[in-house]
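TA notes. Do not distribute before section.
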Amino acid sequence: MSTLNETPSSNRLHIGIFGKTNSGKSSFINAITGQSVSIVANVAGTTTDPVYKPMEIHPLGPCVIIDTAGFDDESELGAARIEKTKLAAEKTDIAIMVVEGCDTIENLSTEIKWCDHFRDKKTPVVFVVNKADLYPEESQSLAEKLREETKSEVIVMSCAKPQAEGETGSVKAELRIDDEVSKVKSVIARLMPEDFGAEYITGDLADEGDLVLLVMPQDIQAPKGRLILPQVQTLRELLDKKCLVMSVTTDKLTAVLDKLVEPPKLIITDSQVFDFVYKNKPKESMLTSFSVLFAAYKGDLPYYMEGAKAIDGLTEESRVLIAECCTHAPLTEDIGRVKIPSMLRKRVGAGLQVDIVSGTDFPDDPSQYDLIIQCGACMFNRKYVLSRIDKAKAHRVPMTNYGVTIAHVTGILDKISTGYSR
């Protein structure tokens, strides 16, 4: 579990490393991280499923490095591995495309297609022409052709493993690689979105000195002895903002409000008790939920709010997809598997079909559904959530999230505060 002073993996810059098998992806990762993160071997297909490694990289800060299987994996499990690579691409904020210096531009059609795909997704791409010390002239020529063909950043780099200690020129080789790694990091830093990591979960709803009340029901869904991740992240942010923070369970809401001299500026609650908190809050206090805040922080809140209107048109013949990001064991009070389906069926009719997926399971073609309801997505980075939204938009399927759904059904969606805009 993430502690209060850790950066959750979902909030880190995701750097995906892509290329053919044995192009030197794993060696490059070990060089840029300064650690033996990935296995290096002269055997094609050493990397199978993508490897996600959270770490701090100076000067980039908290990152997740993704080592992927080769584009040209022709093993028995190659197709499945490439599907995993495609999933990793959906989570990638910046893509590093590693090619061998001895390759030719004519042989890089797959890499160029992937570059075009990333460009369509507004994901920056950096080409690394690897093993330049083995193929110096070929590497420089290939780099020039890649710059011309892709209009991308291209860096020429030596083998990402220095010569053995004691060999002639080994110190010089290490210094050269260090310099090349620094260039890669500088380019990544320059390509990072300007506002990356600067967004606030609570937007402009709370500032220094404001009193914020967190209503957090500790029911069967709450891990024993812990808080769920959205609560932890929101609490930490409010402390960083120098807000005055109070936390209560739902049954103590009215008691704590009676003891306050002034009402809280903002109340943040769990979406499942939206209605109760709204009915009992001071009229001066703004109200929102953790899930609504994450709808803006991780996704597209205006799109979610528009999508919630589709609830009014559902019938017993409709089909709804609930997309969880967690892979937790279902519980009797589970909000996604139990409470929201029951709420919808009570409104629409018992015949409403509700399908549930979890983790990274999500249909490439969701057109069979009349509505998609996404969780708060605290476990995923924003890039991946937006890839799901893009699929829904492409197939003209309305999409919303847990908190927005509950606020709409309880009739208070137009009365809650978001404090966030992109």
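Switch to the second chain here.
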Amino acid sequence: MKVAILTYARTNNYGATLQCYALNKYIQSLGYDTIILNVPLDDGSVRKVKRPLYRKLLSFVWNRFYSIFKKIFFKNELYDYEIRYCLNKEQREKEQMYSNRNMLLFDEFRSKYLPNITDEYFYESDFDSNYPEADAYVVGSDQVWNVDICKRQYPIFFLSFVKPGRKKISYAACMGGNDRIIFKGEQKERIMQLLSDFNCISVRNQMAVTICQNNFHFAPKQVLDPTFLVDNYDELLAESSIEAKGCMYIDKFIINDLWVNAIKKISKNKGLQIRMDNCLIEIDDVPFAPLCRIQDWLKLINTSDLIFTDSFHCSVFCILFRKQFVVAPSYQGGEGRMLDLLDKMGIEGRFYYTPDELINNINVWSKPIDYDAVWGKIEEQRADSKNYLIEALKN
């Protein structure tokens, strides 16, 4: 039996790549052949797409209008600590160069561990000329049902292309971090129709359950992210020689002077060196190592004494590796995934919104996490999640 997996398969994002790796590996461990459907997002991040002139003009006009609209009506929509460093032209070019070079490292990983990725599918019509034959189609995990990310490609991620009679399954699909999302009009009708054709539906967090209840009048099953399905990541850790003992590893996209000052204070308080490998921005007095393989990213988490992050999947691997860590979101409004994860594991006290909160509560979050209790929760939820997928894939 062949299973086709649809997720964000080709991106230079550590968590997205590893959840794809984990889901693929676990399904294969059940005895199924797999293929991974390669659907690049329509944002130019993977390949440059030639668009008709009228679409370029419409996009330009809309972007300008939206930019002006935000400046007039939402002048204070972000707090200072939610604003990423503003880079000059030279810094932006360097950031893009390092991002492109990291993509090559990710492609090396995919060629070794995900060699079953298909050719690109970009539009729904692409599936007509090169249909990916399979007995079952599994969409998930990650934010595959966040329409703000997949935009006009959203029907693909609700498996619109699958031929009648084939099994459709979602595993840990995520719809974003805000449970107040409301679908309307044609989009709502299309999604409702596509969901009605699924054989089994599961989502990753309570927000997605609430969104489905509010919009589509059903409550899907909640399961763990695929990264929890894999028993260990020893084969990847063994490929890295990185050692970060005595270090505090920072994996944070939203970075600015406020956060850097907080990080340096914590570093001094704990007597730990700062590691910010894979950060593409050069910061004074912090070692700069922007090129970072997936294996090295995992090893950094695995060997650091303390991790500070705004990443969902970095938090997951902190838990899997039994590490001491603390979380601050990129921005308020997108923290739902993080809070849901920490609440599931009974460690919601590791979360802080602001640099001041983080500093003022060092004595609180410095208390070691009771991982025996956490793993009791993981094992129960892992067994339930595995059983869901086993049953969903059965003929």
